[in-house]
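Ticket opened by: R.M.
Priority: normal
Category: complex prediction / small molecule

The reporter submitted a protein together with thiamine diphosphate and asked that the result be attached to this ticket for the collaborator who will pick it up next week. Submitted input follows.
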Amino acid sequence: MKDDLARKMDNLSIGAIRALVLDQTGKANSGHPGMPLDVAPATYCLWRYFLTSDPANPDWINRDRFVLSAGHCSALLYSLLHLCGYGLSMDDLKSFRQTDSLTPGHPEYGKTKGVDATAGPLGQGIAQAVGMAIAEKALQAQYVEGKRLFNHYTYCLCGDGCLQEGISQEAISMAGHMRLNKLILIYDANQSTLDGPTTDTMTENVKTRFLASEWNVLEVADGNDVASLISAIENARKSAVFPTMILVHSVIGFGSQNAGSHKTHGSPLAKDDAEHAKFVYDYNYPEFTVPDLVYQNFREGFAERGAKARLAYEEDLKKYAVEHPEDYARYLDAINGEVEKYLPEIPTFDENLKEATRVSSGNFIAAWGKKCPFAMGGSADVAGSTKTTIPGTPAFSNEHPEGRDIRFGIREFAMAAVQNGMLLHGGLRTFVGTFFVFSDYCKAAIRMAALEDLPAIYVFTHDSIAVGEDGPTHEPIEQLAGLRATPNVTVFRPADAKETWGAWEAALANKRGPSALILSRQGLPLLATSNSESVKKGAYSVYRPRHHRPKYQILATGSEVSLALEAAKILEKKHKIRVEVISMPSLECFEAQTPEYKEKILHLPYEKRFSLEMAATYGWGKYAKHNIGLDVFGKSGKSGEVLKAFGFTAEDIAERILISLKK
Ligand SMILES: Cc1ncc(C[n+]2csc(CCOP(=O)(O)OP(=O)(O)O)c2C)c(N)n1
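Result attached by the on-call engineer:
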C-alpha cells in the first residue's frame, strides 16, 4: 500500500501534468485538451514508475520506447518531457503550436528530444510501435547474447480514433501472431472522438477484438485509479507470450464542466472552466508553474532510474565488447547504419541478358542479405512475385526470431508503417515489397517515413501496363507522379540489371529519407551503354547517333529506355532523324546535380525533348515539351497486346514522334 505522502505526490504530479496541458492549450488557444486530461494518470503511472529512458541520452538504443499514437495529445507528451528533464523548457511549453517551436501541433520525431515517433495520422502509431517491438525481438536473436544488447519494452498510447482506423487491426493482428510480448498498448477508452460519442460510430467489443487477435487484455475500470493502473502495467510487463492491451475507462475532459463531452476534444477550455478543472485537481498554482516537489518526483522516479539503467548498460557493453569482439563490431555497424561495409560486388552481366528488373533486384537482395547481417525485409504476401526474400534465413516468427525474412501478410499499410517503426528503433536496415499499384495502400506510411527522414526502402514491382492480364486494377498509372511529388522520397526506375544494382546501392546510401525502387515484371534487355554508377546522377546518355549531333532527345525511364532506343534507331535509319536517348532512373537524383551537369544532359532546347514513360505524364512537362505517356487506365489482355493497344511499340513511338514533329 502506498503511504499517504506518496499518494499525495502522485496526485500533485498528475495535477501538474493536467495543468500544463490546460496552460499550453489555453495560451496557444489551440490544441486538444480532452484526452490528455483524462489519460494523464495512466501516462503518469507509466512514466513515473516504469518507462526507462535517460533524458540526458534520449537516443540510447536500449531505452523503452513510448509512441503516442494519439498524436493530437501532444500537450500531454510535452508536459511529461518537460517534467522528466528532456530539456523542454517552460518557455517551450509557452510556445506550444507556434511556428518553429519545439512543441509543434503533433509530435515530430527528430525535432523534439524524447519524441520516439512522429504521430498525428491516427492508427499509424500503433503500427510503428509494432515495428519497434519486432525490431527488439529480432535484434535479440541476431547476436550471441542479444538480450544483453536489446532488452526493453515498447509502450504505445491510443484512443478510440486509432482503433477505428483499419491499420490498427492490421498491426494488432500481426503483433498477436508474432507474439510480441514486450509490446504494451494503453487504450484510453473515453468513448468520445472528435465529432461525438463513440456510440455514433462503433458498437464492436474492442476487448474481444484484441482477444481474438491473441492479445492479453487487462482492464482498468477507473482511469483515475493510480493503484489499478500501476498493477495493470506491472501485469502487462509479465506477459511471457502475448502483447498486452490495457483498456482504461476514462471520462474525456476530466475536470472540465463539459467532462464527458466531445466538446473538450479539440478546443481549449474557457478560462473559467480551466480554473474549475484545476480546482477539481486540487492544483493551486499560477499558470505554467510547477512546484519543486513535482520536479523532484520525476527526477527521482524517472531521470535517475533512466540514467542508472543506461550507465549499467554501458558498463556491461564494455564487457560485451571484450567477450564478443566480432559481435560487438557488428552491433556498432548496425546501430550506426554502416551498410557500405556490407555491399555485395556488382557482378559482370552477360551482354545478352534479358532479365526483369524485379529479378535483378531479387539477386541484389540475395547477395546483400547474405553479406549484411542486419538486413531485414519482406513483403505483403507477394514475395514470390516481388522477389523480396532473403534466401537462407527462415521467416521471422516467435519460433524463429533470428529469421530476417518478414511475412507481413496482406497488410500493405501496416507493413510500410511497421518498417518505419523498425527503422525508428534502429539496428536494422530494412525493405518492404508489394506490387507498385498497391503502393497507394502504403502511401500514408511512405509520407510518414519521408517526414521522419527514415531510410525506408520500397520494392515496388509490376510497374506498368505491361502487367497485362491482371488488368487495370493491377496496372499503375498515377503512382509514379504521386511518389515523385512527395517531398524527401527518392524514386528509382531502373532500365536494366546494371541500373537496378546501381539503384539499390543508391537507395542504401540514402540515409535521410525513403527510396522507392520501381521494377518491371517483364524481362528487359541489358543495355550496352548503361551503368550502375550513373544511376546516382539520376540521368545520363545511353545513346547518341554516331558522327552527328542529335536533333532530338528522348528522356525515358525503366522499361521504356530500351523502347526509346529501338524507336531512336527506327527514326535514324528510316527517316534520318538523329535522336539521343537519356535514361532517367531518378528525377530526384538528377535534380540534386549541379546546373552544369543538368545542362550537359539536357543540352537541346526544351521543344526538342520528348519524355517517354508508360504512366501519367503529369510532371514531365518540366523536362520535355512532348510527353508520351498514359493518362488513362490500362486494360486486361496479353501484355504485348495491351502495349500495342496503347501504342507502346517502337514503331508506334517513332510514328508518334514524327507526328509531333510535323505539328
Ligand atoms: C487518419 C486521421 N484521421 C483523422 C484525424 C483527425 N482527428 C484527430 S483526433 C480525432 C478523433 C480521435 O478520437 P480519439 O482517439 O477517441 O481521441 P479523443 O477524442 O479521445 O481525444 C480525429 C478524427 C487524424 N488526426 N488522423
